[in-house]
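FAQ: What does the model actually see?

It sees only this:
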Amino acid sequence: MKSLTVIADNFATAGLSAVPKSSVDFGTRSVSGDLVGNVMTANPLSIDPAGLAGSGPHQETRLWVAVNQRPNVYVRGHLLNHHVHGPGENRNLVPITGSCNTTMETQAEHVIKKAVIGEGKVVRFIAKAKGKQGPRKYIPQESELPEKMVLNAVELEEGSDGKWKTEGKSLLKDKEIPNTLPKDEPVGTVHIEVNLSKARRAQLDTVEGIGPVLADRIVKLRNKLGRDFHTYDDLKGADGIGDDMVDKLRDNEWVKLH
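And it is asked to produce this:
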């Protein structure tokens, strides 16, 4: 018991005396009468949460309710990740696409978590939701979503005067994560993946820009080749399909070759 008491006393101070307490400011903007996270400045950010408690999202805004009409598209993204003390409150949340959130985690936030949690570093970390989307017809509130997320982070070093200064190495330098929205279309629109190498005429006809005439020509070209299409450029063998159409098909996430 004496040994455990010594260990407990050591745990009470271990790792904390050498780092400053985290200090985090949240900047917000008003959307539809609610405050939405806009910028987060952690200076410093350390393993000491200083009263902050990281958590999953547990607050909603009118903006979130509106854009969440598109199921499985958006998430309430943290400006400060919950693993490094980011609260799941509106001041720290901004709706972004799931792909934007995943890219933030894999290309940026893991750098911060590794430095602060894994290595006990002290950093200055700034995350901003920048820009706004263009006009949207079916869910107008989507126009209020950020165009991109921009992240900056640098290690801090303790000076001889005991102050933590920005003389360490840069961790993130104007790291931009695009927040690319889905197609502006009615809520509930169902998409079916079309395989150009296998689809029948009726299925090809459903692809935007093809129609029944081009669908028939694509099938005839495929039969003439006697094989699957190897590249999108193979489609130029069909009368009426030029570079513009090939580019549109290549960019259509619901059109595949194999």
